[in-house]
Amino acid sequence: MHSVISAITDSIEERSRDLRDDYTAMIDQMAAQPIDRKQLSCGNLAHGFAACGESDKDTIKLMDAANIGIVTAYNDMLSAHQPYGDYPEKIKAAARSVGSTAQVAGGVPAMCDGVTQGQDGMELSLFSRDVIAQATAIALSHQMFDATVLLGICDKIVPGMLMGALQFGHLPALFIPAGPMPTGLSNQEKVRIRQLFAEGKVDRKALLDAESASYHSPGTCTFYGTANSNQMMIEAMGLQLPGSSFVNPDTALRDALTRYAVQQVARLTAVGHRYSPLGKMVDARALVNALVALLASGGSTNHCIHLIAIARAAGYRMNWDDFDRASRVTPLIARVYPNGLADINHFHAAGGTALLFTSLLNAGLMHPDAQTCMGCDFSEFVGEPRLHGETITWTTAVDKSLNDDIIRTPAEPFAPEGGVKLLTGNLGRSVIKISAVSKDHWQVRAPAVVINSQNDLQSKFDQGELDRDCVIVVRFQGPEANGMPELHKLTPMLGVLQDRGHRVALVTDGRMSGASGKIPAAIHLTPEAIKGGPISRLCDGDVITLDADSGVLNVDLDSAELSQRSVCSAPENPATVGRSVFANARQHTSGAEQGASFLFPTDTPL
Fold it and tell me: Which of the listed ranges 117-121, 204-208, 408-412 does the model predict with the highest average pLDDT?
């Protein structure tokens, strides 16, 4: 193991010892009780299987066969989740084939950030993760299940499901993905049309035609945003079958992987062959493996929040220092849009997760002894699935990349450091995704343009006020202010300004997510404006330095002058589109570096 990666893992374990002990004691206590259905009275149990067929009822009554709880995020508005519509019946059939049963334990909400992007509803997005965690816990609370399978893919859904399932960490759990849509309009062309629309050079019909050609069928969006970063990280944690992340929907291999996953989770139960509880699998090694995979692939900055919240749900404390230290020794070895021109299908074809993980293992950057859902160590877990008739086998990764423009080795990386860096200075702490930003844009020093809403930028852009070097400061976008929406409405305008030769950057206490593009953006700035952070005291014209090389974010003001300025008042948060029901969540959420969670607002024991 690389000494720094080992040291990061040890540091996480040491600072988390009390929380982790509390967590493992909780799941050990749950595991020590009679397994699930044996606790239930006859009336309880009768309610639990009343709607089942007679054969399933007889199997459930036996108590010595696994009953698998299905938690699903199906809806047919999300292209990524639409394929899940018939998965429950597929899962039940697969369970019966090994003498087990399965029931839909419950559903969780699944909103699409692509639909709410730039809209008021985006202010519900981040908090939907904690609601999903709560809904997952409710689904599993019936004590009917020996294991669970989790049907979720997209942005807040996978983290939320995992956080909820970890509260039943004595049960084995597997994620079952549905795969990305086939490649459509190239990402390069999509971005070109977006910027032309921002400049008023093409009409709305041309923009809609381009977007529709890009997002065109069932399956996950093909760019490397949070949804596909979720898949990369969950596989790196050993929580879904090896090589299963990016197999397209409605293919024979996809269906076979689903069947195998169900049969495998039955084997991992206390009534199966090898008891492997989720809470023991998700340890510091698994978390660090996920972190390294994220950094090496240039994944979503949303996981600078989500991975910390997942860790906290498993009794661990992670922070941005862990991300920064790991990034300094983890080379960037994948380029997938927005970090390159390829999409996730091209990545999968070039060698995919098997090649990426094998390369990182060989470099000592991932823990080979982390536990996995296959009942083996991570070093033996990595592979590519192959279908022979109806039988799946796994082969070793290709020995070299099939496209060096998409995947490379740590010996010849795209960059010597990973995709995320920590920025610190007199404005606080923030993160920047550097994997998509050209090196010559890593340093920006320019006057601030301060706004309190992303909607305020359009008029300044249209009036030509921004045709100069500038740092756009968007504040009151943190979790307590308005739920921390993503701010991609800014991206086309800032891209145009940069293409015109201006030095531009973004500084915000909000998010930019996995689609963070070519503009240097200091995001997740903490403390946030509504808590009186320094960003709340900035004025137009203040000179800001963003330096991703040295990890600095500063305003050219001494501490006395900055502290003497009055704090700007927060804009009123309207109550429309359901925002009012999250008012309490906003008031009790933790900061961005603590996972922005209202489930774990303070560092109290679980």
Answer: 408-412
Q: List phi, psi (to 5°) of 506.
A: -125, 140
Alpha-carbon distances of 125 from 23, 129, 130, 381, 384, rounded to whole Å: 27, 7, 10, 33, 34
| Residue indicated by tokens 């020590």 | 32
Name the pTM for this structure. Answer: 0.94
411 burial (CB, 10 Å; 0-12 / 13-18 / 19+) is: exposed
pLDDT of residue 606: 47
- Dihedral of alpha carbons 24, 26, 28, 30, sign: negative
Mean pLDDT of the chain: 92
Other beta carbons within 10 Å of 325: 17
Phi, psi torsion values for 435, nearest 5 degrees: -65, -25
> Which residues, in sequence order, are bridge partners of residue 103?
69
pLDDT in tens, 565-584: 999 999 888 888 889 999 99
pLDDT at site 52: 80
- CATH 3.50.30.80, the chain: domain bounds: 420-594
Superfamily of domain 420-594: IlvD/EDD C-terminal domain-like (3.50.30.80)
Comparing C-alpha atoms, which of 457, 448, 533, 467 is closest to residue 488?
457
- Looking at the DSSP assignment, which residues form a beta bridge with residue 428? 425
- Quick: pLDDT tens for 288-314: 999 999 999 999 999 999 999 999 999
pLDDT above 80 for 36: no
Reading phi first (left if > 0) and then psi (alpha if -120 to 50, else beta), residue 354 is in alpha
Pairing of strands 67-72, 101-107: parallel
CA dist 592 and 484 (Å) reads: 9
